Amino acid sequence: RYSFSNDGRLDAGFTMGLSTFQFNLGLEGEVEVSDPNRSITIARDGTEENFIAPVPFIGIFIDYAFTPPLVMRVKPEFFRLEAGDFDVRFVESRWTLDWYFSRHVGIGAGFNSTDLSYSDTGETPLDVEYRYSGALFYLSFVGGSTPAAAP
Q1: Is residue 101 classed as helix, strand or coil in its secondary structure?
Q2: What distance, in Å, lies between the first and last C-alpha atoms of the chain?
Q3: Over the stretch 10-22, which tens digit does the pLDDT of each residue have?
Q4: How far is Cα 14 from Cα 34, in angstroms, rounded to an integer?
Q5: 65, exposed or middle or buried, with CB in 10 Å at 0-12, 13-18, 19+?
């Protein structure tokens, strides 16, 4: 996170980093086997894998303190990569309003939206889509003297 402007009321700049997502990928299917005696065996089988995928991002942020205890935060982040058979897209946006009822503790609420897609059109095609949108409610703890300057 790097601030281009921070006057105590407005803090604005850019962000970059990694988001991590835990995926659960499951495959299931039927196997049919026939022998020379014409008997057919059908079996149902499946497998499941869990993995964590890091997703890089760049973005911007704007934190605006209407009053010292009331801070609005807006933060869109994105990443896009097309290379060969791969196409990866990540877009996340967040809008929140924080109220600091004490010097170091506050509560917040807002809206968050995440859209992640991965597509591989190579030898083993794979498409993954993850979308989430919803309300946020949280408790904040900050150091320093002004909530507007806090991350």
Answers
A1: coil
A2: 8
A3: 999 999 988 777 7
A4: 61
A5: buried
